[in-house]
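Two entries, shown back to back:
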Amino acid sequence: MYRDKTKVIHIGDRVIGGGNPILIQSMTNTKTNDVAATVAQIRRLAKAGCDIVRCTVPDLEAAKAIAQIKAQLADISIPLVADIHFDYKMAVAAIEYGADKIRINPGNIGSKEKVAEVVRAARERSVPIRVGVNSGSLEKELIERYHGVTAEGIVESALDKVHIIEDLDYDNLVISIKSSDVMMCVKAHELLADKTQYPLHVGITEAGTVTSGNIKSAAGLGIILYQGIGDTIRVSLTGDPVEEIKSAKLILRTLGLRTGGIEVVSCPTCGRTNIDLIGLANQVETMVQDYALDIKVAVMGCAVNGPGEAKEADLGIAGGIGEGLLIKKGEIVKKVPEGALLDTLKYELDHWK
């Protein structure tokens, strides 16, 4: 596994690389200098299971807000990453105001002297730098050399930026390379993983809405992660950032890369379904988010196949005609009215041993 061999990097009180668990990231979409709104959103993200949060820092007010945000989140101690574009002074300021990590593209920061100022500030406080390169920011000469935007060009661009910082004698680095082209992104990660031992932050950028973005992210990230590539993950969605956390957790659990939390399985419905299975399954999925149990819950639509299909689940409910069955470890426990199914399941979860 590539991730077992990557360099260990400390981000606040979290650790990535060297075989440590893959951490989930997201990015706030509030104005960073709106401290109250940003803190509220970060708390929602943390409650959903987010490990690291990135905030944009376009100006000095946003950089100063980092200190206030961290102070108000001291009780949950979640690392904050400052997202910087173009202005190296904002990177320096964000570090001075307490950012636990910064994300830059040295190519749009400016001269090597400006990059050196950022590295100096990062070295003084042992702040990691995430070198981020997207397919959309690929240099003209690389596009010409590779006859278009390619995985090879993205990797070369990223490594060129890494070498700029390494030449300044700093290697507290994380690399991210992203593209909205899923298979290009997969190939780029495969190429990069063979060329570096820095931890990799993986994601499919500009993936789209909650529906299309989840499909593209699951396909691309599934391939990348299954190959042992990736130390942190973000599912980029056009929507509530909390949805990114839910999706990332599910992708990691599906691949066996994270345990904990209730896994809900449900059947796709058919003509035998005589209860509101779609509504019930959605209610169950929402309800179980508040439980720290590491179990599988099945929500099935009929009493014909339900008990059999739920055998592999720890707990399950299967619908009938206006009623349903409660199933534990593959055994039917009792029959209850349809309206009582959700409450019956909740009781079992509340008293699960």
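entry 2 starts here
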Amino acid sequence: MEWLKKVEPLNWLLVMFPVTLVLRWTGMSETWIFLTACLAIVPLAGLMGKSTEILSESVGPGLGGLLNATFGNAAELIIAIFALRAGQINVVKGSITGSVLGNVLLVLGASFLAGGLKFKRQTFNSTAAGVSSGLLLLAAIGLVIPAIFEFELRMTGNSAGDSLSARENAISVEISVVLLAIYCFMLLFSLRTHKHLYAGEEKQDWDVKPEQPAHEHWPLWLALTVLSVATVMVAIMSESLVGAIEGTRERFGWSEQFVGVIVVAIVGNAAEHSTAVMVALKNRMELSFQIAVGSAIQVALFVAPVLVLLSYAPGFPRPLNLHFTSLEVVALLVSVMAIALVAQDGESNWLEGVLLLGVYLILAIAFLNLPATEEPKHEPKPAKVSYVPRHHPVDAWPVGAAYFEVA
């Protein structure tokens, strides 16, 4: 299995897959199951990404770009689907927020820092970066509008419980359709009409090794097999991870927002995170920027809308809406502002990396200190309404008078 050794050193963590299964079968602590499942998903996500790259090269740049865009966050999407089926809405919303924050602040910050310590000045296409920043801003607007909508209804006194919930769900579905449409236009822009902006420079100052990348030694059948098997294994580990969330939260006192924003988001994107940092160390900052910000855009424009629409399918206990908490809304806006500031000049340095990492740590501290709260795993049953006649003389009743008592 020489091909497996050449992909990533993280593949040694694949041993955590059978370890997690053994822990589940023996009824061990949910904390250990949660930890081993997280570690197992990291290399599996990396294998899914590598196999997708090979398939992309085989089918051509157009369809290949679509495959990369679609499967770029497959591991994270699978985890979110299992959490959604378990009714853990706050974890799902937190994973959406955390993916945007993690890619924009943590991944890009680490890439700027690592590359900046090795190279005094690194550059990337400012036009493409501006387009990506604009798309991210648009996506953030789509994700924060439902919270502003809910605030507006409460301020105007139109916040009856059932009516408010129905309105939030409706506006979330409509916004999701718009975001998906914009995602399709983004693919057309980046893969067809303006693909030169994302092609990168043909000549770089970094040293190119004569050896071919490891994934070029994979035949097509092997790439398909790895993608299929890794997807199934990620699904199994996602089920284990989601099932162990409650016990782990109770032991450490974590909120569901912290689990989603920090833990699940990092696990689902760990392999991609390492790739962005490695290419930054080779002075390929343009590619590193595309990996980090492009992944955040995919989550906001593709993963989040798909999860909202999927939550209405049979088997899901509660519909998902895009109404995020106030802290999540502020975090999204802060991340968009940060990326807009550092991307405008088309250059990066290690200090900008430190600033992005500092913002991420501040937000992580805030989510860590959120109190752990419980949420209903299913929609509350409607109140039982019973008909109770008035206990007054009949001649004293108004015509048809009676009252309804909510039991």
